[in-house]
Write a structure and sequence with these properties.
This protein has 35 helices and 46 strands. The two termini are 60 Å apart. The radius of gyration is 42 Å and the shape is elongated. Helix 1 packs parallel to helix 7. The strands form nine sheets. The protein has a nine-stranded mixed β-sheet with strand order 36-37-39-38-40-41-44-45-46, with helices on both faces. Strands 1, 2, 10, 11, 12, 13, 25 and 26 form an eight-stranded mixed β-sheet that branches. It has an eight-stranded antiparallel barrel with strand order 27-28-29-30-31-32-33-34, surrounded by four helices. Helix content is 27%, strand content 22%. It has a domain of 210 residues. This is FAD/NAD(P)-binding domain-containing protein. It holds the Pfam family GMC_oxred_N.
């Protein structure tokens, strides 16, 4: 395979995105080296659902670094420098990417180097597959089940061989200089018979599939094994066990670092907590990544195969969190007696520096191809004195640093004769002048020695109390006398013996590439690797098994991975038998299509999500993602409705909350183009709720989606189900509100885009509520996490730009909202239309006394209560019709509400409403409209056989109704049971802005400019009308929260004043205003203005309809009743007002209410002010039907009068049919429920 980093589609991906992680599996495997790979493969073949968690990334041949520039970013260093091995001075070190390919752990006395990636150390080892000496396996360190008969491991060595297919370097392959030199050196030592070519996991065959069905390529003999081979010849666990596990249904997840394991609190099995390093989450800092862990439930088993350092650290951390273990956990680690040394500047050419593309005439070979095996009884009577010497190759990424490191290293030993000094000097100069690959140079004459022997197995791992990270103290690493003998042997091989140059660089500590132990068989684990519960026969943690090098109880004196693999095969077979799991070893894979799907899946596919991922990978389409942290307070419980109050209470109760979520849109086109702007959420939510932390997968994120509840408002939405560690599911619903209220204010835009309103429910009841916010520092990190995916760099850059532009447009639209052109979509461009609801059962014509014919709609009740149907007449105001009561854009409108309550509903649209009559004869006064109300009410009474009706009148309809009552046109006591008046009655006091306009001759000015006595509330063609709309966008609308882009809204506001609080209208209603608003004649406006200035209902000529009676000062009788009011005697009246009504001030309804009470007494009258409501939103809001809101309050009054014969209404919030009425109830202030941003829901 070519080494081509810019073509990600060239490489398969068997790991799944963490977004597809399921909450639970039968088996969770931690790590993907030899032990983890065995467990994953065998359990998948046992038809268990398997999850593999690997800290590193997935890389395939062609993606490994080939030079220092590429390798450097992949180095992760952790631990602590401890100079001179005293332990008194420790310098903690944590540097580099924790998912980097190379992990250097700094211990006290010795350091360890391990691989990190999907495939573990098998990606970087030297491939040598050698069995342990049976004498070593018989030592006291091993459990009796093995030491008594080491041959029992042969079965498992053979099983490992069948998968890994090791073979020696073929004699038919080109001769290798470093191999020849090692053979010559064996002769120098007099042990040439101990030299041989060991079996190794390098593909020496023709290109073709391996044992697992993965296509392999013949080695190019590059010598790059220790940094990753790009030629496709290295037989790693990635291309064997893991590929096999994938093919049998295992689900693999990378960049997932397991931290600890706990028993599941309510179910069988274990919870594995892990840090997800993907989606650039590390940019938020180590503390956030490791404090907000994700988790997965293993129902049956957890296999720890994270390597010696990883698995031991996980168990230690688990122990600190309550998991009972043996006291020997973390004890008796070994460096496997590793010694790294160099024979610098030999007389013989070695050619031991790796090359990515070597000259076929000068191949380097695999890293190791030969061994001098001195473990036999004839060379080491004591097995602890046995060791092996293997030659090696230095990867090309270190080539140019190699000579300085060797020549500057202390403690060099030279046994060469003085006569060789000139030649050795010349070779050194040659390498310095012409580089490490110069023929005849000292570097090309340097042999690498990797020695494996036996150390004292006395290293100890503990956890640093401050960082919770591993700390290893290597005590007596080198058996001094034995090590001295080995060093003397190496010095006899020629050249200058240089002990590892890393010795001085890394705090005078040796380095091992074969750390083993820490969870030793027989001491910390059973002979099958099951974690012991404690000491003294306390038993094992069933289903918690260690399968990596951590179980090896002592140094092996040879490359350990063959033994580790064999032990893992033995352990997995043993625990599977305990659970009755039948592993299919026999079925062979066909050649695998790693770009396709597994042949033997276990879990059902997530069709929608998985299909999106597959499509994104195959097409290389642009995707984008980012990560976000929000903090806040979420109150546990659902008794508090207000988000702000809930958050305050949570703060007082120390109920803080935080989420750490990554947003991923696999298709940027959908994210930016679709109306719901979808993306996926993955991460954790932590709070005071039971079951915390909660896992979030496959959550839904919406980017600037239209808020259907409020006009000109966008939301950033967070909707997801989340599973707690107790196994219970909760639903998280959160949204940020972005609207025009933030115009011209960067502070408010920040507040809107950084504040999340949260509701958590259990499916039935609210479990929590509160708010969360983004800190500025976290937002900076969030910006840094934005990343795009795509087939190539130009696409990714373009995608980044598109996302940034989209985000900027949304915020710019809000910031400059007042300058936005006014628009109305109009029927031709709407994608959503609303049919009349409910459809009238009948439309009848009623003729007023002056001959004007009006339409009146009739809706029959949907149910009959007590066998009786009662009648209610609705009277809408100016420029509107019956649809303000039968609005189809809200879930439940007034007509539906009342017909469901058993009432036959009528609605008459007067001549000043949305009707063709409004334009007749140059328009009408409000006083004229009383005749239409009278005609409609008369017909209702006639159709009911003389039975009185209940009247609900709004705005100008209420003023017209009042006019008819006051001048006697409407015989109230003959026709009316009761009345609800909405917003204005006998005292039309104008709002502040309308009062100012009333003193300006606007109607006359408009007539002059427009050459018309008619003003449309919807946009009209023509230059004057367009100019009007352009000016209107600067018309004062109140606070910034009332800014909108609807021309109809602004036009109606100019005519009447702002008709609603925008927060109370949903988007559908606001978008269709041009359908529900008509126009107004200048005659109607002049009459309204006249009454507003006089603050009294009057005739068009200004004559008041309420005239105070003349009182005889000498009379002893009480003051007589105003004769105009006498018609209202005995009729119960409910008056409702919106506290924020700016068309007619609420003061006007208070004056009418007070006049009625003062005239007739308090018993018949009630006034309710709805806090937060304006004018028309008292009828046109989607929340008017809520308990205790407008419809409920009015129906309570209607029921009390019509069904129960009571006066007044019952207590708010009680179901209407159950209400008891207080005749002396005072003025009520009703506050509807509020949405998060302070607006009515």
């Amino acid at each position: 395979m070519d080494h081509a980093h810019d073509h990600p589609k060239k490489y398969p991906r068997i790991a799944r995105p963490v977004e597809l992680l399921r909450p639970s599996y039968d088996v969770v495997v931690i790590g993907s080296g030899y032990g983890g790979g065995v467990a994953a493969s065998r359990m998948a073949r046992g038809r268990q659902s398997v999850c593999v968690l690997e800290r590193g990334k997935e890389r395939w041949p062609g993606e490994y670094p080939s030079n220092l520039k590429e390798a450097a970013p992949q180095i992760h260093v952790s631990g602590a420098l401890s100079p001179n091995d005293t332990g008194r001075l420790r310098i903690p070190v944590e540097a580099g990417d924790p998912t980097g390919l190379y992990h250097l752990f700094l211990g006290e006395g010795q350091n360890a180097f391990v691989g990190n990636g999907l495939g573990g150390t098998s990606l970087l080892n030297a491939n040598i597959f050698l069995r342990a000496d049976p004498r070593t396996l018989s030592l006291k360190y091993w459990p009796e089940e093995i030491r008594d008969d080491p041959s029992k491991l042969e079965k498992y060595y053979e099983r490992a061989e069948s998968m890994l297919q090791p073979s020696p370097y073929p004699a038919s392959f080109p001769a290798l200089k470093k191999l020849d030199v090692l053979q010559k050196q064996a002769a120098t030592l007099g042990v040439e018979d101990k030299f041989y070519r060991p079996p190794q996991t390098t593909w020496f065959h023709e290109d073709g599939p391996n044992s697992s069905g993965v296509q392999m390529k013949t080695t190019t003999l590059s010598g790059q094994d220790s940094t990753g081979v790009n030629d496709g010849s290295k037989i790693t666990t990635l291309v064997t066990y893991l590929a096999d596990a994938w093919n049998w249904g295992a689900e693999i997840f990378c960049e997932c670092e397991a931290r600890y394991v706990k028993k599941h609190p309510t179910q069988e099995g274990y919870l594995v907590f892990f840090a997800w390093h993907g989606a650039k989450r590390d940019l938020f800092g180590k503390e956030n990544v490791y404090e907000h862990l994700m988790w997965v439930h293993a129902r049956k088993m957890v296999f720890l195969g994270a390597g010696v350092l990883g698995s031991t650290e996980i168990v230690l951390r688990s122990k600190e969190r309550g998991l009972r273990t043996s006291q020997f956990v973390g004890q008796d680690l070994s460096g496997n007696g590793d010694i790294l040394a160099f024979g610098y500047n030999l007389d013989d050419e070695v050619n031991g520096i790796g090359k990515e593309h070597p000259d076929p005439a000068r191949p380097i070979g695999p890293t190791i191809t030969g061994v001098i095996d001195l473990r036999g009884e004839d060379t080491a009577k004591n097995p602890l004195d046995g060791f092996v010497i293997e030659e090696g190759a230095i990867a090309s990424s270190l080539a140019h640093l190699f000579q300085p490191m060797l020549e500057l290293s202390p403690g060099r030993v030279t046994r060469a004769p003085l006569s060789s000094i000139p030649f050795r000097t010349l070779r050194s100069i040659t390498s310095k002048l012409f580089g490490p690959y110069a023929p005849g140079g000292s570097v090309e004459h340097t042999q690498t020695y990797l020695v494996m022997s036996h150390d004292s197995n006395q290293a100890t791992m503990t956890l640093d109390p401050d960082s919770d990270d591993a700390r290893i103290v290597w005590q007596g690493v080198g058996r001094a006398e034995h090590i001295a003998e080995i060093s003397e042997t190496l010095a006899r091989l020629g050249g200058t013996l240089v002990q590892s140059p890393f010795f001085s660089l890394l705090g005078q500590a040796e380095i091992t590439v074969h750390a083993i132990g820490g969870l030793n068989l027989g001491r910390a684990t059973s002979h099958l690797g099951e974690l012991l519960r404690g000491d003294d026969g306390a038993g094992v943690h069933e289903g918690l098994i260690v399968t990596d090098g951590a179980v090896v109880p002592a140094a092996l004196g040879v490359n350990p991975f063959a033994t580790i693999t064999a032990l893992a095969e033995r352990s997995v077979e043993g625990v599977a038998a305990k659970l009755g799991i039948d592993i299919d070893y026999a079925t062979k894979n066909a050649q695998l299509d790693l770009f396709g799907s597994p042949q033997f899946p276990v879990q059902p596919k997530d069709d929608v999500t998985e299909a999106a991922l597959i499509r994104a990978r195959k097409t290389g389409q642009v995707g984008i993602g980012f990560t976000e942290i929000m903090n806040g307070f979420v109150h546990v419980g659902g008794e508090i409705e207000s988000f702000g109050v809930a958050a305050s209470q949570a703060r007082a109760d120390l109920q803080d909350a935080q989420f750490f979520l990554s947003v991923n849109a696999f298709d940027e086109d959908a994210l930016l183009g679709r109306s719901d702007h979808p993306a996926m959420l993955t991460g954790t939510f932590s709070s005071a709720l039971p079951g915390s932390p909660h896992m979030v997968t496959k959550g839904k994120f919406g980017l600037f989606t239209v808020d259907e509840r409020t006009p000109d408002t966008r939301n950033l939405t967070y909707e997801f189900d989340m599973v707690g560690v107790d196994g219970k599911m909760l639903h998280f619903s959160g949204y940020k509100v972005v609207n025009n209220a933030a115009a011209f204010s960067t502070r408010d835009i920040w507040e809107e885009t950084s504040t999340l309103y949260v509701t958590i429910s259990d499916g039935k009841l609210v479990a929590g509520k509160g708010t969360m916010k983004i800190k500025v520092s976290d937002f900076v990190h969030e910006l840094a996490t934005i990343a795009t995916t795509g087939a190539n760099v130009p696409l990714r850059i373009t995608g980044f730009g598109r996302f940034g532009a989209f985000f900027a447009r949304q915020l710019t639209r809000v910031f400059f909202a007042p300058f936005a052109p006014l628009t109305d979509k109009g029927p031709a461009t709407r994608t959503l239309t609303f049919a009349a609801r409910p459809v009238p059962n009948e439309v009848i014509s009623v003729t007023a006394s002056d001959g004007v014919v009006s339409n009146m709609q009739v809706w029959e009740p949907t149910k009959v209560i007590d066998g009786k149907v009662l009648n209610v007449l609705f009277v809408p105001g100016a420029s509107v019709d019956e649809r303000i009561f039968a609005l189809p854009t809200i879930p439940l409108n007034a007509i539906e509400y009342f017909t469901r309550a058993g009432y036959r509903c009528y609605a008459v649209t007067t001549r000043v409403g949305l009707t063709p009559n409004a334009k007749l004869q140059g328009g009408w006064s409000i006083y004229d409209a009383r005749l239409d109300v009278a005609a409609g009410l008369k017909e209702v009474v006639r159709r009911a056989g003389g039975e009185k009706a209940y009247v609900i009148a709004h705005c100008a309809g209420a003023v017209a109704f009042a006019s008819g009552l006051l001048d006697g046109t409407i015989p109230a006591r003959d026709w009316i049971r009761g009345i609800t008046i909405s917003q204005v009655f006998m005292h039309p006091i104008l709002g502040t802005v309308n009062d100012i306009k009333a003193n300006i001759p606007l109607p006359s000015a408009y007539t002059f400019l427009a050459r018309s006595d008619w003003f449309d509330c919807v946009p009209q063609p023509g230059l004057v009308q367009h100019a009007f709309d352009s000016i209107l966008k600067f018309y004062p609308v109140g606070g910034r929260k009332e800014i909108c882009s609807s021309a109809s809204c602004h036009r109606s506001e100019l005519a009447f004043g702002r008709l609603w609080n925008h927060a109370n209208l949903n988007a559908a209603t606001h978008d269709h205003l041009d359908e529900y608003l008509g126009g107004v004649s200048m005659k109607s406006l002049r009459h309204l203005t006249l009454m507003g200035r006089k603050r009294i209902t009057s005739r068009p000529d200004g004559t008041p309809l309420i005239i105070a009676p003349v009182k005889d000062e000498s009379a002893l009788e009480p003051e007589p009743v105003n004769p105009a009011l006498e018609n209202l005697r005995g009729i119960p009246i409910l008056i409702i007002s919106g506290s924020d009504n700016v068309v007619f001030a609420p003061e006007g309804t208070d004056m009418s209410y007070s006049l009625l009470r003062n005239t007739f007494g308090a018993e018949m009258y009630e006034r309710v002010v709805f806090k937060g409501r304006g004018h028309l939103d008292s009828w046109m809001s989607s929340t008017c039907a809520d308990d205790g809101d407008v419809y409920d309050t009015v129906l309570g009054h209607v029921d009390a009068i019509c069904r129960h014969g009571k006066l007044g209404t019952g207590e708010g919030g009680v179901a209407a049919e159950k209400r008891e009425v207080s005749c002396s109830r005072p003025v009520a202030i009703v506050t509807p429920p509020k949405r998060a941003n302070g607006t009515t829901q």
